[in-house]
Amino acid sequence: MSGVTRSQLRIPQSSDYKEVSNLSNQAQASPALLGVGILGAGPATQAIHLPSLARLGDLLEVRHIMDVDPAVAETVAGRVGANFSTSMDELLADPAVDIVAICSPHQFHAAQVIASCRAGKKAVLCEKPFAMNGEEAARISAVSAETGVPIIVGAMHTFDPGWLAAEEAWEDLPEHVHTIRSSIVLPPNPRFEDFATEIVGRVPVPGRDSTDPDVIKAMLTGGVMGLAIHDLPLVRRFTPDFEAVEVLHAEIVRPFGYVISLRAGNVSIELRAAMNATWEPSWVFEAIGDDAALKIDFTPSYVHAGSATARIRRAGRTTVLGPFGHNGYEGEWRKLAELASGTGQAPSAETLIHDLEFALSIAEAAARRVDTGRTAGTPADEEINA
């Protein structure tokens, strides 16, 4: 198992952030930089996006942060010298904001994406999932086409230079893959969040009865839509028959995790995850064919430690790609800067919709197995070995 040691973690220093007032920020805003507004100032904003943006100060500048908690909004905005508000409308009306990042709870995503497009912004980043169903996704697609505003969904692995290099090098591998594995072992998010920054406004996770069928269904759905979804666009790259999804097995792993086996067309897929007290994290994606195979070791969520490393094995030969100098989070923002500047190609609406439909179909099928009595929680002491 490959992991990331504590010494490899990128911990932002005070010099990474501009401790200036809102007034002075307005005076110093550079017209040469693209202005960023962020809806939602929770841990993902604080521990992922602000450190990523701090490394891209030659391209992007955070100018407005909105959160429904005024204390959180003011504190987080103060770290980067941005304006703050508790109103989406106020952020969208801010002429200094060119790009909107939507980091709010997922039930608000569709409405906020549509509003951002209609506000005439240059590009939108929406954390996953960008919609809760196909109807919402279709409305987003229509508004994006109408307004010409490009949208990126925050499945960061699709923007990781290691993955992009593998796409360029794997030749005809997708045509011959028969087995795919996504295996994730992580500590709980707060451990990585606290390495990245000092979190303000963290909301405690409520306790739950993981023997309750409704809780099991929610954990399976949340696992797919919150964690596995990072790799599902990668999975779909090897599964042209993705609409024919059959979930063969689904169970939860305590305290949080899942084991889901499924088929999509002729491809067998295994999704495994465990979040427990382990220190050694691992995030591995594999695509295996008869004569060739791809293995990618990704840096875990919240870790600012460069890109994934990809290995392509073929005919007794291994090609190693990476690691490169930045990770998928930074790759997202680099892509947004391109799109907002009028260069680069945005993912097609069809791609985003199909990625969402694929994830939803897996989540719904896994949850249905609870109703039929064909899934359950694993024993409390069971652990996934990636």
Secondary structure blueprint with pairings:
Blueprint: H1 22-28, E1 34-39, H2 43-54, E2 60-66, H3 70-80, E3 83-85, H4 88-92, E4 99-102, H5 109-118, E5 123-126, H6 134-147, E6 151-153, H7 161-169, E7 177-186, H8 189-196, H9 213-226, H10 232-236, E8 245-252, E9 256-264, E10 267-275, E11 282-289, E12 292-297, E13 309-314, E14 317-321, H11 328-340, H12 349-371
Parallel strand pairs: 1-2, 1-4, 2-3, 4-5, 5-6, 7-10
Antiparallel strand pairs: 7-11, 8-9, 9-10, 11-12, 12-13, 13-14
Total beta-strand segments: 14
Distinct helical segment count: 12
Q: What's the architecture of the largest domain, going by CATH?
A: 2-Layer Sandwich
Shape: globular
The CATH topology of the largest domain is given as Dihydrodipicolinate Reductase, domain 2
Radius of gyration: 21 Å
Could you tell me the strand content as a percent range?
A: 15-25%
CA-to-CA gap between the ends? 7 Å
The protein's oligomeric status is single chain
Look at the structure and name the CATH superfamily of the largest domain. Dihydrodipicolinate Reductase, domain 2
Strand line-up across the major sheet? 8-9-10-7-11-12-13-14
Estimate the mean pLDDT confidence.
87
Helix and strand element order: HEHEHEHEHEHEHEHHHEEEEEEEHH
| Helix share bin | 25-40%
Which stretches are low in confidence, meaning pLDDT under 50 for 5 or more residues running?
1-27, 376-386
- Indicate the CATH class of the largest domain: Alpha Beta
The biggest beta sheet, please?
8 strands, mixed
Count of spatially separate domains: 2
